[in-house]
Amino acid sequence: MSGARAAAAGGFTGVCCLPDTDPPIHSKSEVEYVINKAKGGLVDIFPIGAISRSCNGDDITEMHDMNNAGAVAFSDGINRTVKAGLMERALFYVKPFRGAVFSYPDEESISEKGHLNEGEVSIRLGLNGIPDLSEELVVMRDIHLAEYTGSRIHFLCLSTEGGLNLVRRAKEKGLKVTASIPPHVLSMDETSVESFDTNYKTLPPLRDKKTAESLARGVKDGIIDSIASFHLPQNEEAKKVEFDLAAFGTTALETTFSLAWQALQHHLSPDDIVRKLAVNPREIVGQTPPVIREEEEANLTVFNEKAEWKLEEDKIQSKSKNTPLIDLPLQGKVLGIVNKSQTNLPV
What we know:
Strand order of the largest sheet: 3-4-5-8-9-10
Largest sheet: 6 strands, parallel
């Protein structure tokens, strides 16, 4: 599995996979298949079950069965048509077993014609923008639903200051709300899109510099609980087209640590960054974080935060190479991982 190899190269000993795959993870059969397929591999794979059949936003799935089969959370991935009623039912369904629902906050009816952040750059380039409002509306709605149901909601990949502030206020009220952020919205900004390089067409979109700085402070303050790669590979044909026709997404597993370190090294210690990458994500999905202790099975990542390196295209482990970081200088290098008595560390 190229995804597992890419995860290992990026320093991940475990990853969650979203359910909007082909076929989708929408029943206990698919959950069991993913778990069995990954069994014995270097990287642990934790399947997230779908909220709706085929992630289409209509018929709710048998979430209890998937939970018993090993699903660690529930989401429709980046499907942006999850209606309020379906989200409410999902939050009620997971409450008895203390499950979590993952929400990708984007109101499609507002963002569907956008290609990048709505702002000065979108105006200058003459391209339709994606406003902050499309994220903030869904964050506001789902916080209200989490409060109403008394259940847990996790926001996948916040990217706006408004969304951040909504989560901040929800936490101050004591609601069961957590949030993650992808490293690209911390380490890059919308000016990169001026090159019309379609590899900068990401989800969520790159915002302005002020927003990136606010989000970094949100990570430091604990409003953002975790850093997620949001690995969204695309084939070459989906990217080698005009910017407005290109698909969203970037490969990210192999560069997540470097981008997170570069963006946050002046805000957080290495220990804190590791907590955001490896400890908090496991706690959010109900997994016990590994510990380094005598007689415990080793589950660890070896890295050098001071090392400088370049991502070489022919060494990318993901099948897709859609990243703007090829041959660019990066700081913070993963040397390898150890897990389940296996390693990819160089001998």
